[in-house]
Write a structure and sequence with these properties.
The protein is 29% helix and 21% strand. It is built from three helices and five strands.
Length: 119
């Protein structure tokens, strides 16, 4: 089965890393490019799997490191989360974002919230 063959009872959690120049990793890029295809109908994900997206970034890679936050270095996760919603996907959990420079402090609270929602 492909991902699109699953129904609403399936939950997919996407972990997206943004690397230099707002680019995804090689595997992450494949995923984003698939969902960004302009040939997809706007209801492609309607009635399909639920999703959650968590982004991992590193604001050390940005030019202006003094005023940056996790939001500034997780463009790939934001892009995927937005696109899945535009395709009619059911967002199971809010977008999570973590910054390597801040020791990924945002990871544990997001994971706890994610699992608590499942119970």
């Amino acid at each position: 089965k492909t991902l699109l063959d699953h129904g609403e009872d399936v939950l997919c959690c996407f972990i997206m890393q943004t690397i230099e120049n707002q680019a995804p990793t090689e595997d992450g890029g494949t995923c984003i490019r698939f969902f960004k295809r302009k040939t997809h109908p706007s209801d492609l994900l309607h009635g399909k799997f639920s999703f959650a997206v968590f982004g991992l970034g590193d604001s050390n890679l940005l030019l202006d490191r003094q005023t940056t936050t996790a939001k500034d270095c997780n463009q790939c996760a934001e892009e995927l989360n937005d696109r899945l919603g535009l395709l009619g996907g059911n967002c199971y959990h809010e977008l999570g974002m973590a910054d390597e420079r801040a020791d990924l402090q945002e990871v544990e609270p997001w994971i706890k919230s994610f699992w608590s929602k499942m119970n």
